[in-house]
């Protein structure tokens, strides 16, 4: 069993919200906290939208939603080789927007004839009064590194804490 990642509760909340609207492809969705280059640690979420709904909306090779603590939510259409053709902003105004905002943006991708209404404006849930131990550990770890591009900010970690049930 893999260790829970600091952003798993948030990713689960987003995936549950998408699944409740039949927008999610569970098999093509995952989270990771890793380094691509040995230096930058990224909290990442990758979500594939429902393939049938994507094809019905003329996204022949699917649509993927992406999240990390630097860029927030983005999206991209797939190509026949399984790569993304391009990546564009999905939700703005918040790095950790409410899952309902992600659902609203996904619905635009799968129902509108255009993506002109993207990115949607996101709202952030208030952080809990007590920060859960897993998030506090990260806050303590990054305290000396604040301001560096790859380090999750205290604001982002506190926003993620809103989904931990702590």
Topology:
Layout: H1 8-20, E1 24-35, E2 41-49, H2 51-56, E3 63-68, E4 72-77, E5 88-89, E6 91-92, H3 99-111, E7 120-121, H4 133-142, H5 154-161
Parallel strand pairs: 6-7
Antiparallel strand pairs: 1-2, 2-3, 3-4, 4-5
Helix pairs in contact: 1-3, 4-5
Describe this protein with a few key phrases:
166 residues, alpha+beta, two-stranded parallel ribbon, 5 helices, 7 strands
What is the compact description of this entry?
Helix content is 30%, strand content 23%.
Structure write-up:
This protein has 166 residues and is an alpha+beta fold. It has 5 helices and 7 strands, in the order H-E-E-H-E-E-E-E-H-E-H-H. A 5-stranded antiparallel beta sheet has the order 1-2-3-4-5. It has a two-stranded parallel ribbon with strand order 6-7. Strand 3 and strand 4 (72-77) form a beta hairpin. Helix 1 (8-20) crosses helix 3 (99-111). The two termini are 22 Å apart. The mean pLDDT is 88.
């Amino acid at each position: 069993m893999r260790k829970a990642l600091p952003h798993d509760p948030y990713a689960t909340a987003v995936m549950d919200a998408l699944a409740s609207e039949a927008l999610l492809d569970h098999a093509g969705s995952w989270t990771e906290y890793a380094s691509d280059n040995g230096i930058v640690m990224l909290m990442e979420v990758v979500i594939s939208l429902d393939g049938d709904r994507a094809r019905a909306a003329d996204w022949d090779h699917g649509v993927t939603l992406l999240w990390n603590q630097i860029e927030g939510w983005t999206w991209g259409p797939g190509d026949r080789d399984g790569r993304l053709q391009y990546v564009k902003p999905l939700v703005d105004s918040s790095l950790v927007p409410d899952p309902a905002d992600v659902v609203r943006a996904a619905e635009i991708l799968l129902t509108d004839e255009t993506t002109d209404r993207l990115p949607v404006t996101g709202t952030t849930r208030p952080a809990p009064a007590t920060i859960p131990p897993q998030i506090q550990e990260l806050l303590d770890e990054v305290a000396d590194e604040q301001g560096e591009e790859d380090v999750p900010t205290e604001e982002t970690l506190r926003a993620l804490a809103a989904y931990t049930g702590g």
